[in-house]
Amino acid sequence: MADRVCVAQIGAAHGIRGEVRLRSFTEDPMAVASYGPLESEDGKRRFTIEAMRPAKDHFVVRLEGIGDREAAEKLTNVRLYVPREVLPPIEEDETFYHADLVGL
C-alpha cells in the first residue's frame, strides 16, 4: 500500500487573484479540503486550501500563499497527495482505494 494517496490535481489558473481550478478524486469531492495540508508529488511543497467553491466540473480554490495569476499558473497540473492515514477507513467489503489496487 502507498503511504500517500493522490486526492486532487490542480488545473489552470482562474482569474487574476491566484485562484486555481481543482479536480478532486475523493468520493465526496468537497472532502479534499478536510484532509489537512496537501503535498505535491515530490513532497517539496505543501498547500492549504483557504477557500473552495464548486464550478461546472471542478472547484475554484484559493491556496494559502498563492496571491496572483502568475503564481497560480506555475501550479498547473500539480497532483496533490495526503498521507494514507488521514483518509477515512473503508467499511464496505470488496471496496478499495484506487491506490491499493495499483500494481496488482
Would you kindly provide a written description of the structure presented here, covering whatever features stand out?
With 104 residues, this protein is mainly beta. The protein has a single domain, classed as RimM (Elongation Factor Tu (Ef-tu), domain 3, Beta Barrel). The protein contains 2 helices and 7 strands; from the N terminus they run E-E-E-E-E-E-H-E-H. It has helices at 69-73, 98-101, and strands spanning 4-14, 19-24, 38-40, 46-47, 49-54, 59-63, 79-83. The protein has a 7-stranded antiparallel beta sheet. A hairpin with a 4-residue loop joins strand 1 (4-14) and strand 2. It is elongated, with a radius of gyration of 14 Å. The model has no long low-confidence stretch (mean pLDDT 91).
Summarize the structure.
With 104 residues, the chain is mainly beta. It has two helices and seven strands.
Structural descriptors:
single chain, 104 residues, mainly beta, Elongation Factor Tu (Ef-tu), domain 3, seven-stranded antiparallel beta sheet, 2 helices, 7 strands, 9% helix, 37% strand
Order of helices and strands: EEEEEEHEH
Number of strands: 7
Strand content: 35-45%
The third-level CATH topology is Elongation Factor Tu (Ef-tu), domain 3
Secondary structural class: mainly beta
Compute the average pLDDT.
Answer: 91
CATH architectural arrangement? Beta Barrel
The level of helicity is under 10%
